[in-house]
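User: Can you predict the 3D structure for this chain?
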Amino acid sequence: MITVVLSGLRARWASFLGGFLALALGVGLLTTMGLGLSATFHAPERSPQRFASSPVVVQGQDRLTLDVRRGPDTVPVSQRLDRPQPVDKELLRELRARWTVTTAGGPDAVGVDAVGVDAPAAEVRALAGDRAQVLTGDERRRADPDPERDAQALVALNALLGTTGGVTAFVSVFVVASTFAFAVALRRREFGLLRTAGATPGQVRRMLLAEATALGVLASATGCALGALGAPLLARTLVDGGLAPEWFTVGGAVWPFHLAFWTGLTVALAGAVAASRRAGKVGPTAALREADVDTDVLPLGRALLGTGLLLTGLGLLAWTGVTEPSELLKRKTYTTLPMLLIGGVALLSPLLVRPVARLLRLRGAVGTLVRENSAASVRRTAAVAAPVLVTVALAGTLFGSAASVTHTRGVEAREQTAAQYVASGEDMKQVTGAPDGAVLSPTASTSLFVRDGAEAVVKYGARAVADPAAFAELARLPLVAGDLRDLDDRSIVVNEEFERHRVGETVEVWRADGSGPVRLRVVAVLALGTGDNGPYVTRANAPGALLDRIEARGGGAATARALEASGGTVRTADAWAAADHPTSSPQTRLGLILVLGIALVYSVIGLANTLLMATSVRGGELASLRLSGATRAQILRVVTGEAALATAIGTLLGLAVTAVVLGTLGAGLASLSAPVALVLPWATVGAAAAVCATVAVAASALPAWRLSR
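Assistant: Here is the predicted structure, written as structure tokens:
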């Protein structure tokens, strides 16, 4: 048996090359992603910067702690504030009286949020008590500006690498399984000869499993080596692209190698199991009789799995759109759920390619032959269309969903203001002396903390209104109930996400600096939208909030000149909405390109391998065409036309999946009372389809040119 397996691998190395490359690449990517994930779990953190020379840092309290009920007990739950509270003035005087105290970025002053102290930590803690936090060692970085940015970057990086690893596993399983299944279908004559020579079905199955094991071990080992080389390159790419902190590097964890190796071997065996069962059922005479005829192109197991994935994907999309439409706007949802649809349609593609091919009307003898050959050779056409479907659908759903969400937010922001000009920036100044007829509405970003039920504390991003009358005149918010003109220092505008969201109800909130609770009356309720609709309060309920936006209408060009005195960037409302809500951030684009690039590489490997194998065994068919009078150019047009037609079928199926996903997203946006501004990334989808078509035509033309001589 071992001799037969090794001889088969040597004789058919070209047939196994595609599966080997796909599996090695998959294992290499899994190893690389695993090493990156391991680095996010155990990454060293940035050293303190703001008070690097001070052994002790005294900082104001930076958390709001509320009691919530969990089961029979009441436990404290903390939420990080927007900024630490100022250090107690009396404590500052006591610290300065005993030790050397320094402040960062300027001379000593009261109202600072943190100071460095050159003193023993134990004595400082005894003096401070519960009036402030005392930080030492690496904890001093909590006093740096934006101390959570590295942690947030690692969380986002963890999600990106996990998603990329999932896509890698999904596509590698699909490509490797398809490669084995198609290779077995092409070897039916060989299996018939083995059965005629006395081989039992069990021996045929064991031979295929042994080949898969040998291929899996070699490819997995190669992939682990590639992953070890690629991990440092990935870390540098992530740092250069702004997806990871500057100090991010991969570590020396061992578990990613084990996980990737055994996953690769399992994928190889799993892809061969179904194919080996079919090969074992081939009878001696039936194999010879049916060697060149497509039968049983959709086995029961594949049909059940494909139907289950398709129904599950459709059901989850519909359920999410009805019960939690806001979830459709999240990257985790529009990255994972479409994979179920893609997998289901790809598995059922043998049922779909024949009717789609029959619908196409191609002119001339060559066109007719292309259409009929594609419809008759269902297995070959489906094997070519499926990887194209995966690539086009991923390009359409990932890039389309991301672009649609961000574009919708920009359209929503523009529709929610009647302003002609918007000045935006950080720490802006109030504008005085506005031109006659101009209406100016200054607002600031802040946060509010609300107890949600008895078991949670929710932090809401809010906006603080300086002039309620001007705000009500310029705002075009999606009102469900109430009136924006009723907003004052004792009231609040909420959205439907709040537990209490009826006009006249009282909401208990804590402010951004931790002060509270404050009881505010609901005067207006907004639709949820894309998530940026409220809440709104007045500046009296946003202590310390810095002005960052001024909306203005009327007064003509004089108003724009007056806004320049605020220190912010002055734009028209259209330009402001486009600038503050771009199509996607560079980090998001890099992540999506990484995911799509993996799928495209796999598709190229699958297409090239499938068409090289399929065309190489068509010598008799092509010779018959020559004998019937076809020229060599006509034969090449037929073969490449079949490849192009299969690519077009895969593209159409991928666009159908994209339409379902984007249609569900549009329905979810409509249910949220948000603008439906869907974007189909034609350039990205077209580029992916063009690459697949180029590879498919080339991979079919080369062996056809050789065989038609």
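Confidence is low (pLDDT under 50) at residues 105-110. Residues 231 and 497 are 42 Å apart (CA to CA).
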